[in-house]
Specification:
mainly alpha, Rossmann fold, 12% strand
């Protein structure tokens, strides 16, 4: 998928049109939406290890893309649109504080995680999700991002985001 995205970026750059490219962080909402699954397991288990992930939210992306579309000074730039990178341990802590759970994080092998995701989501999506978490483990999504440079304000903090979800 990344190769396809990079080809699309190259095509846009070669188009002769004015352009600005946003590279989304990993959406955090699926982890929030999966809270019942995490509760049932009592843990978050994936192959990210100690890797940090520059997550984002759909609402923060909407704000950033509005800026990309309306600020001419961003033309010709490629921007990483993510919040502060966090580990899976930190994610578990945020989910615990928001939902009153006692989740922990457990690292599994990449093969185990792909098998688990494939069993639940199918043989097409399972390896894609596995690849994302392998990227997290390898540090691919551990970058500060350009959110503030694009929008003129910092990305919503994870403390604020998860406090707003608290039950």
């Amino acid at each position: 998928m990344v190769q396809s995205n990079r080809q699309t970026e190259a095509d846009i750059k070669a188009s002769g049109l004015a352009w600005a490219i946003g590279r989304n962080g990993i959406y955090i909402e699926p982890d929030v939406e999966y809270i019942d699954g995490y509760k049932a397991r009592g843990e978050i288990a994936n192959s990210a290890g100690d890797g940090k992930c520059g997550y984002t939210t759909r609402s923060e992306l909407a704000y950033a893309y509005a800026a990309l579309l309306t600020k001419d000074d961003l033309n010709g730039g490629t921007f990483d649109l993510n919040g502060t990178p966090i580990t899976q341990d930190a994610l578990a802590g945020y989910l615990n504080s928001a939902f009153g759970t006692n989740l922990s994080y457990r690292e599994v092998t990449a093969e185990e995680f792909v098998a688990d995701r494939s069993a639940e989501l199918g043989d097409f999506i399972g390896p894609i999700i596995g690849g994302i978490y392998e990227g997290i483990r390898k540090g691919v999504y551990d970058r500060p991002g350009d959110y503030a440079a694009v929008t003129g304000r910092p990305h919503q903090s994870w403390d604020d985001y998860f406090t707003a979800l608290s039950v």
